[in-house]
Automatic annotation (TrEMBL):
One of its GO terms (biological process) is ribosomal small subunit assembly. This is Ribosome maturation factor RimP. Its main location: cytoplasm. Residues 224-253 are annotated as: Disordered.
Amino acid sequence: MLYNQRLTTIRAGTDRPFFLVELIFPYISSRAAPYRPVVLQNVVQQVVTGLGYELVEIERSAGGVLRITIDWPWAPGAAEPQFITVEDCERVTRQLQFALEVEGVDYRRLEVSSPGIDRPLRGKGDFERYQGSLVDVVLKAPIGKEAAGVAGLGAGRKKFRGVLERVDGPEAVPDRWRIVWSDEPAVKPGAKVGKRRRPVTLQALEFALDELREARLAPVVDFKGRGSKPAELPPTKNDVLDGRQPLAADDSD
């Protein structure tokens, strides 16, 4: 058995280090079993959560590479958890190696890593955790012509980037979210803003989580501090949206 440990560290916008631990071993055809996604999901989920971590993502490539991304759990109102370290990745790697061998899961190389600066957002908990962050979203269906005309966007667009917000208010539909952005160039640091400067025009895309194909933190590199908060945007509270109709995801053509 060949064990090759590779450590890669990347520090960028979220100030979250990225670690990768690999386990490489020869392909053993006598133990090969049909790929069973449910079994793989259950085994990895049990091992990762049993060790006190959160399972972020499972990726399996055609070449037999099995990539597992882990993070520390987060709860509403709690402080941001500590970073995942290389020791955490090694710990999970050792346990997964044993569990996957017992279940007969076929793979050629195992990689366990911490989330990078483009961390995927999988569920409601991730959206609550990263409210106020700059995110990239991809819709399952492109926006229709009517909705695009209201916001001045081209019909058929699926990909958007903006600041993530929850849709609040007495008449708000539960579990609705939006991203807010501006297409105008940001004011350069230290530049003087004249009194006659017109207010920044903001756009908004409102959606439910089941309307998304994919959502991730925007990979914005900021070496001056922590977080991916877009300084070029004004505060994205509900009162900023007054007088501007949010754009809703539309399945029509």
